[in-house]
Structure formats: C-alpha cells, structure tokens
C-alpha cells in the first residue's frame, strides 16, 4: 500500500485522442457497420455493472436502428484483468472512470454513462465511527477530521482526492482488498468511497462495515465508455450513437430505473449533506 500526501497535479490531456476523433469522419467506408447485420458486443463486469451496460448499449444501438447481440464473457472478474481484456479486444467496451492513462490505452467516448451517479461518493466506514462524521459540514471539516481514504491505484478518485488536499492511500492489484483492510482497523485507512449506485449493491455484502449516514462527496465527473483499441470501427460507430443517446435522455432514464435504490435507505442520496470536490486542473 502506498500512502500519499495530497498535492495538486495538473492533468495533461493527449492531443492524439482529440486528433483521432476529429479525423473519424474521414475514415474509410470499410469501418461502417451495415444496419442489416447485428453488432456483436463482448461484455464483462460484476452483476450490477454488466446488466446496466448490456441494457444501455442495446437501447442506444436499437434507437439508432442497429441490431445487437451481447455475449457475456464473465462476471466478477477482477478490474485489473478486465482492463487487460479490454486492451487486447477480448472485451468490446467497458464503463470506467476517465484517466489520462486510460485515454491513451483505450478509445474514449466522453459521454457520461451514469447521469453523474458515479461522481456522488458515499462512504464505507468501520462500525462505531459515525459520530466523527456527524460533525462534518464542509470540505474543510473533512480535512480537519484527518481521515485517510482507501483508493485503488488506478481510480480517477486518486487525482481528485489529491486536488482537494484530502489524505488517501492506494493499493495496486485487486482493489477489493480494501474492504478487509478497512474492517481490520489497523491498515491506516479510515473510509472507502464508493459511487452511490455501487454502494446499493455492495453494502449488503459487507456487514462488517457501516454505511456513513450523513455525507455524499460530489464531483462533476462521470464514468465514460472506453472501447477496445482493437475495435476502432466500433468506436467510430458509437461516437455519434452514444451522443445521440445522451441528448435524447436514453441514458438518464435507464439510470433512474436501474438504480432507483440509491434514493432508498441506507443510501438515501437526496437526503445527504453534499460536500463538493473540485476536479484537477
């Protein structure tokens, strides 16, 4: 586990991706999908994310008059392995937090995929620690609490926590070890932030932890769609399809239906105190 002192870091954006996207209309017609043939998508993920991704892609593509066939590669695959599978084309696409490294490795489609839910972070904490958080009403209060977040090394949260001068510690490999580390109480982490829709699925699986009851840490950044670099023709197709889906509300509506439980206890998202977090420059 690597522990970090918060520091502001300027995030570099890569011109190559922007240039690639600008040149897409000039790509040869061989990259075009005929609408009379189904598009086959190879998907993976945990039970919640797989089902959401599958339903969203079918809805968006069928709205654009494409037929879709989805093949389930597997569920509950470690994130590190899924990213390797995405890189080599075993998985067609995956919804992930945007980072510079991922922008370089995969083909991004910068349309928000969860209607902002992933940027609303609810905390796992050890049982018996709620009283400490009851006193937090601002970002400065949270800093003064001097608690350390446990984060996966590749999470987009790493740069965001650093930009907001919030202490954090990262682990490489399987980030799910963070649950055990937090429950142990002696691994130098005090809380684990999770997206509101992730918390809906996870809190019943971790009775050894408590869901913090008062706060939501909110930042204006959503997960986006990354397409395998082995499938540039799929990326070229999905750029306008997903933008159209966003503009027509085809993403917002499935999010609300699929994740209705975020507005129910113990998440109760609309009843929490909002602590706003700034994004890195």
Q: What is shown here, in short?
A:
The chain is of the alpha/beta class and 281 residues long. Helices cover 35% and strands 21% of the residues.
Helix and strand topology:
Blueprint: E1 2-4, H1 15-23, E2 39-45, H2 47-63, E3 68-75, H3 79-88, E4 93-97, H4 100-105, E5 107-109, E6 120-125, H5 130-134, H6 139-145, E7 149-152, H7 157-163, E8 168-171, H8 177-184, E9 192-195, H9 196-202, E10 210-211, E11 215-218, E12 223-227, H10 232-247, H11 252-258, E13 273-276
Helix pairs in contact: 2-10
Structure description:
The protein is an alpha/beta fold and 281 residues long. It folds into 2 domains: 125 residues, 3-Layer(aba) Sandwich (D-Maltodextrin-Binding Protein, domain 2); 141 residues, Periplasmic binding protein-like II (D-Maltodextrin-Binding Protein, domain 2, 3-Layer(aba) Sandwich), CATH 3.40.190. 35% of the residues lie in helices and 21% in strands. The protein contains 11 helices and 13 strands. The strands form 4 sheets. Strands 6, 9, 10, 11 and 13 form a 5-stranded mixed sheet that branches. It has a 3-stranded mixed sheet with strand order 1-8-7, sandwiched between helices. The protein has a 3-stranded antiparallel sheet with strand order 4-12-5. β2, α2 and β3 form a beta-alpha-beta unit. α2 packs across α10.
Order of helices and strands: EHEHEHEHEEHHEHEHEHEEEHHE
Taken as a percent bin, the fraction of beta residues is 15-25%
Shape: globular
CATH architectural arrangement of the largest domain: 3-Layer(aba) Sandwich
What is the percent of helical residues? 25-40%
The number of helical elements comes to: 11
CATH class of the largest domain: Alpha Beta
The helix-and-strand class reads alpha/beta
Spatial extent as radius of gyration: 19 Å
Most strands sheet: 5 strands, mixed
For the residues shown, what is the average pLDDT? Answer: 87
Give the full name of the CATH homologous superfamily of the largest domain: Periplasmic binding protein-like II
- How many runs of DSSP E, i.e. beta strands? 13
Per CATH, what is the topology of the largest domain? Answer: D-Maltodextrin-Binding Protein, domain 2
Termini Cα gap: 26 Å
How many domains? The number is: 2
Q: Detail the poorly predicted runs.
A: 5-30
